[in-house]
Amino acid sequence: MNQRWSPPDWMYRNSRPNDNGYFENMTRVIFQGGLNWRLIDRKWPNFRKAFSDFSIDTVAKYDETEVERLMNDAGIVRNRAKIVATITNAKQFQTIMRSHGSFQSYIDSLDKSDNYARAMKELAEKFSRLGPSSARIFLYSVGENIAHES
User: Fold this and answer.
1) Given 1.10.3720.10, 1.10.340.30, 2.60.120.10, 3.40.80.10, which CATH number is that of 19-141?
2) pTM metric for this prediction
3) CA 83 to CA 93: how far, in whole Å?
């Protein structure tokens, strides 16, 4: 049986997300790194609740009390480094949105030549726990026309 792969529902392949959607997908890609995607998929409704529906402005205000709350939440993956990265990345989203008007405008401003090589590098340098391969998955997940490398 030759079944054709189709992207999961959380990927924006025919549309583009709003700023909170970009933030949510980046967070998902980061938490998925090194773990079974089915585990993340099963826990994702809990992630949404735990991270205030990925409201950038709300998550950016999280402090150590919120980190401890999240570390005690069995409904999510309790990885301190990834939790702290999510908060740090929310603050970086705010900075980018102030300077570009929206995260989408920032994405549109990135150099997408050479199959997004520079864009992936910039994202990996700007965001915590986002490496080149996760940056590739992130860009694909938010509707960018990034080609699969064979």
Assistant:
1) 1.10.340.30
2) 0.93
3) 15
